[in-house]
Amino acid sequence: MNPEELQVTAFEIILNSGNARSMVHEAFNAMREGNFVLAEEKLVESNEEILKAHQAQTDLLQEYASGKEIVVEIIMVHAQDHLMTTMTLREVALEMLELYKKIN
């Protein structure tokens, strides 16, 4: 994989995980307003974006597993960090949604 292809993959991961992160924050807002249906919808949408980012990551791992050399640049480290923190934030949001439902 050449450096340009790696950067495109990194930006794809960043874009999709960034979209997911925005949707998680929209879900938090909906939770605060007591709109649990909207919160759930936003969390489902966020998962769809995470899956897109995860697919780009999986494609990269498959290339590596097939023997292609992958030179990791700082942008890929950032992309991976962005994806993992977004996935964690979504998991927290799912737990918070259940708590909000119990107190309302």
Automatic annotation (TrEMBL):
Recorded hits in CDD domains, A to Z, give: PTS_IIA_lac
Q: Which residues bind Mg(2+)?
A: D81
What are the positions of the active site?
Answer: H78
One annotated GO biological process: phosphoenolpyruvate-dependent sugar phosphotransferase system
* Cofactor requirement: Mg(2+)
Q: Which UniProt keywords apply?
A: Magnesium, Metal-binding, Phosphotransferase system, Sugar transport, Transferase, Transport
Which residues does the record list as Phosphohistidine (modified residue)? H78
How is the co-factor bound, per the entry?
Binds 1 Mg(2+) ion per trimer.
Put simply, this protein is called: PTS cellobiose transporter subunit IIA
Give the source lineage, highest ranks first: Bacteria, Bacillati, Bacillota, Bacilli, Lactobacillales
